Amino acid sequence: MIAKIGRSSNLLGTLSYNNLKVENEKGKILLTNKIIETADGNYSVSQLARSFETYLSANRNTEKHTLHISLNPDPQDKLSDEQFREIAVLYMNEMGYGDQPFIVFKHTDIDRSHIHIVSVCVNQDGRKISDKFEKVRSMKVCRELEKKFGLADASQKESQQKEKICNPVNYSAGNIKSQISSVVKHLSTDYQFQSLGEYNALLALFNITVEKVEGELHGNFKQGLLYFPLDHQGKKAGNPFKSSLFGKNAGIDSLEKYFGACRNELNNRLRRGNLRKLIMNVLHWSKDEHEFRKRLAKEGIDAMVRKNDSGRIYGITFIDHQSKTVWNGSRLGKELSANAFNDYWTNTLKRENNTPVKKQRKISTSNDVDSPANIKDILVGLLNNSPAYEDSLLESLGGFIPLAKGEDDKEEDFSNNIKKKRKRRRK
Predict the structure, then answer these.
(1) For 404-410, what is the mean pLDDT?
(2) Could you tell me which of 27, 104, 112 has the C-alpha nearest to residue 77?
(3) Quick one: which of 61, 119, 63, 128 has its CA closest to 93?
């Protein structure tokens, strides 16, 4: 089942669209929740609208207050009216709209029966109901409803369709605009990224690049995006296309809003930490860039490395196809930044440890009673005032008593007292 959520500022228009289906006998009202009832059970648009007036008057700041949701089962799924009602109530409850007034319309104007739900996203206190991560939550609810009612899994069909549609652009095949459109249309909703650079790294997998253009037109500052096709060597292979040709989601304003939304969602230390550990582990076992990228690909991760003309690495981005997320290396940690990788591969630095570890002298744990390095025997000998054991203790302590400025005062006094005691006995 696929859910489509729309918002507008036109409640009357949305109600009129759905009620017209009823009047033309191509639909009917299946369910009403907190809607003022009529004597004969029939409703006009104005009668339906009155049920929402108190909610809308309580909030004048929310521009797009009207909620219009369509729930679309697979054509092979045959659902009764009662099942549609139950699905509508469960969906609205899970999405946080269960206490809102809403109307459920069933449309039968096409072969596939489906339902539309009209409501408002402002509660009776005048507060806007949160739509944070709404698409993700909606998909989760749909998957749960599919299991509960034995419906076809829409996510499998969507992924199969996207695999067919999202192919790298082939410049020589022609119809470049259509090829770019099919890719851009899905990437901006399927993957999460936080900057134009990360978006570009993702586009590069499909032989596309995007550039931001700014300028002044008729005294007003303007900015936009241009999409270019790339050849197999990653070079521009044709004329650019304006973002407006691919819909508003491909434009700079929508993308910048999307960057912010993704930034909030990707601010998850556990997810970032797990990905970082995986990449660091692969790096540890890879001798060069080629092997590193090959090993990462087996884990479902693409590493997009950017170099200047002299071969210096100035950028690296990781695309995790499992979680559908894109990460600039520096976001995962300085050990995975472009400069760090340039050192790893260009200067052939060892990667076993990212920070130097000071070597400490080992203390023997031998069970040989005669061995002065046995720490237990050293302490026993010291208690018996044996100078030989005092020397052994000092030698052993040398491995872990700090010698740098600012060492612990008690340890320093202890060491100095033993030295003075030894000197007195030698005299």
Answers:
(1) 41
(2) 112
(3) 119
Q: Domain end: 214, 242, 265, which one?
A: 265
Domain assignment of residue 100, yes or no: yes
Q: Which domain holds residue 396?
A: 375-426
Report the predicted TM-score, pTM, of the whole model to 2 decimal places. 0.48
Q: Which of the residue ranges 123-132, 147-156, 347-356 has the most confident prediction, judged by mean pLDDT?
A: 123-132
Burial status of residue 283 (CB atoms within 10 A of its CB: 0-12, 13-18, 19 or more) = buried
pLDDT of 367 higher than 80: no
| Same structural domain, 190 and 244 | yes
146 and 8 both lie in a single domain: yes
Q: Among the residues of 32-169, which ranges form H helices?
A: 45-50, 53-57, 81-94, 134-149, 154-165
The verdict on residue 96 lying in a domain is yes
Listed residues 302, 327, 346: the one ending a domain: 346
Take residue 97 and report the two structure tokens written for it: 């709209």
One-letter amino acid at 295 equals R
pLDDT of residue 347: 66
